[in-house]
Design a protein that fits this description.
Rossmann fold; globular; 3-stranded antiparallel sheet; alpha/beta; about 210 residues
């Protein structure tokens, strides 16, 4: 399909670990009656939402919770649902998570890992085009939109962020990738932390986590 030719799918477990470390601290301090609802809005082949699911399992165990995950590519969604990955994709994954939530492949599947069913069942995959207004059954507490905006012009970035910001609850969090320069944000989003990156020899302030006002 043409959409698969226009999208990039390079990803792995625990990518940009500072985001997951920060999310882990948020989950540890969560005071809500219900577990937070998290949306991986451009999930590619599934490593991001499954990483989030591991953190949720650690924080909330068998309590009711689930993860929303979406991508525009049906090919990537089909791959994500299988939850079968080369071991090389787990190079950043904590060893404890690898042992607890993954099965090591043997025979024809040597060099691969398979996610445990108990984790797979917590992730709900759906096809979504983020450039269109989003209709969710309920607003979410956290959205991950990482390493996607870099591929769009500022007008499209603004359109996507506005579409997604309307899906966040008050005090909700939006994570974008460290490489996603984004100048046009929704008016209800405020930076929560900052990261500096070097571009062509100059330091640029890069905001990575935003909170709805």
């Amino acid at each position: 399909m043409a959409v698969d030719l226009l999208t990039t799918n390079e990803t792995y477990f625990y990518r940009e670990p500072k985001h997951f470390n920060f999310l882990q601290s948020v989950l540890a301090e969560w005071q809500g009656e219900k577990a937070p609802l998290i949306w991986s809005a451009a999930c590619s082949s599934g490593e991001e939402p499954y990483t989030i699911a591991m953190l949720m399992a650690e924080a909330f165990g068998s309590r009711p919770w689930h993860i929303l995950a979406s991508d525009i590519s049906m090919r990537m969604l089909e791959s994500a649902r299988t939850a079968l990955y080369p071991l090389s994709r787990a190079k950043e994954l904590p060893t404890s998570f690898l042992k607890k939530y993954c099965l090591k492949g043997h025979g024809d599947f040597e060099g691969y890992l398979l996610l445990e069913d108990k984790l797979k069942q917590r992730v709900q995959f759906a096809q979504r085009n983020l450039m269109e207004p989003q209709q969710l059954e309920t607003k979410v507490d956290v959205i991950f939109l990482r390493n996607v905006l870099i591929y769009f012009d500022n007008k499209t970035k603004s359109q996507i962020i506005n579409n997604l910001s309307r899906c966040l609850k008050p005090e909700g969090l939006l994570f974008i990738g460290h490489s996603d320069l984004c100048m046009a944000l929704a008016s209800n989003l405020l930076p929560l932390n900052r990261r500096y990156i070097a571009t062509k020899g100059h330091a640029h302030e890069q905001e990575c986590v935003f909170k709805t006002g």
